[in-house]
Amino acid sequence: MYDTLKDKVCVVTGAAGGIGFGIARALSRSQAKVAMIDILDDTLQNSATELGREIGDSQRVRAYRLDITDRDAVMACFAGIAKDLGDIYGLVNNAGVVDQRRFEDITPEQIDRIMRVNVNGTLWCCQAAGAMMKNAKAGRIVNFSSKSGKTGSALMAHYSAAKGAVISLTHALAFELAPYNVTVNCICPGITAETGVWSHVSKSYVDNLKLGSEEVIKKFTAKIPLGRLTCIDDVVEYVLFLMARANYCTGQSINITGGREVH
Question: Does pTM top 0.90 for this prediction?
């Protein structure tokens, strides 16, 4: 782990489980003060309690229930985090939603939800944390896009559009925040095993393509040069590096896809 994060206040959205929980755990083990954000209240509280017990200090890991699509609520929540833990140094925008359906079946309500969570929610959190980082002239932001944000995926036109927007947002913020010593980068994972997204995607492919679950796994892994799905630890390691060590890296959208995505 990285001692450069000791006592730094870091926020992780979508932190109740999966990749977000893995990131929160890695940050807490690096002695950061971690604010875990999610809309899933009970699961979030249990996850924060678990990490507090692991490090032996429940005050260094706090849970905050938040709907990131509500800008006013985001501003209030981040002000509360600063009051509880101190000004925010690091932000990981991991929260997101996925949906799969044929493009002609996408409704206004479905694309609105995809955009509000994945794009608007990311922007609101960047606004709230970015103001503190600008004042401190130091900070690290890591946004989450996807392989689908670079190369669109079948049955995911609206999701691909949203994740492409996150990449462009990352580029723009990197330019705006660079004068304040704030870096902004973006992680683009492939399908990640052991996550809710993978459960949703695999079920959708079973239903839409009429394939068995084992066939779906083979279909995905056959396209990956390294021959396996992305693991949570693969993603966590890159996020931690960007937060703790990558002082001269900004505006990048980094593929974690086992070689499937190369641009």
Answer: yes
